[in-house]
Amino acid sequence: MNWGQLISDYRLGGKIVIEHFTENAYKTSQFEKDHKRIISSASFRRLQDKTQVFPLDESDFVRTRLTHSFETAAIAKTLGVMALSDLKNREDWNSDNEDAIESIPDILMCAGLLHDIGNPPFGHFGEEIIKIWFQKNLKEYFIENSNAEKPITKILKSEHILDLQNFDGNAQALRILTKLHSQDNEYGMNLTAAILNTLIKYPCSSMEIKKQTISRIRKWDISMPKKLYLMPSQAKRALEKLGIRLLIFWKRLTTLLIKRQI
């Protein structure tokens, strides 16, 4: 096993250098830098607004995806320390790998922090809502120009449409970390390859996903009230508004679930 390749500190946007004197005087690994980037980022802290469970508890301890991610990170790091210790005690242990595998606990801690960053509220249930919403309503969006109107499904590429209709929280996590989160450059949070690799759970594109059976979620009305006509310059803003409509639906769904529990 090539530990040096697996535990790579390569960054798409280049290495992060804080300040040369500080860098030389106080050694900080690339994975420790990733940890600081993650916990101080807006993308990570938004998890405080996403629910983990609905316990309907009378206490004031609310479980969000943020608290859950911190707990997961603590457990992941502990498992990393245990695995590191076991590796060093093996008879076939090669000390040449020591520098590389010393970073395993930090990598796993970062993986624990990030494992839910792309998931919508209500977890897999929320994923199903997003998939079904796009399957039913994307065709209702039109682009209006001087010649004729076109449905947005005729303008987007097939892989883009399937990205929406087969929405997946793991793929969304990679989008957030490598594209949507703006920090130093065009590579998002610019994390190391080793940490990004921990998020690649299902290595296939949305075009390879088999058509899933439509679940009972379809009984909820999540359709658009009417067609939406757009000028080309409005297309981007309109797609962003899809998220607002989903948020409104989730709030209504939350109220419904709480009432049913009561």
Describe the structure.
The protein contains twelve helices and three strands, in the order ααααααααββαααβα. It is mainly alpha-helical. The chain has a three-stranded mixed beta sheet, with no helix packed on it. A hairpin with a 4-residue loop joins β1 and β2. α3 runs parallel beside α7. The N and C termini lie far apart (54 Å). The model is unreliable at 212-218 and 224-233 (pLDDT under 50).
Describe the structure using short key phrases:
single chain, 262 residues, mainly alpha, 12 helices, 3 strands, 50% helix
Give a short synopsis of this structure.
The chain has twelve helices and three strands, in the order H-H-H-H-H-H-H-H-E-E-H-H-H-E-H.
Shape: globular
Number of helices: 12
How would you classify the helix and strand content by structural class?
mainly alpha
Strand order of the largest sheet: 2-1-3
Rg, rounded, reads 22 Å
Instruction: Spell out the helices and strands N to C.
Output: HHHHHHHHEEHHHEH
Question: Averaged pLDDT, please?
Answer: 77
Distance between the termini: 54 Å
Q: How many strands in all? A: 3
Poorly predicted runs are: 212-218, 224-233
Q: Give the proportion of residues in helices.
A: 40-55%
**β content, as a range?**
under 5%
Could you give a short account of the major beta sheet? 3 strands, mixed
Write the layout of secondary structure elements.
Elements: H1 3-6, H2 20-25, H3 30-39, H4 42-45, H5 65-88, H6 98-101, H7 104-114, H8 123-137, E1 141-144, E2 149-151, H9 158-165, H10 169-180, H11 193-197, E3 228-230, H12 235-261
Parallel strand pairs: 1-3
Antiparallel strand pairs: 1-2
Helix pairs in contact: 3-7, 5-7
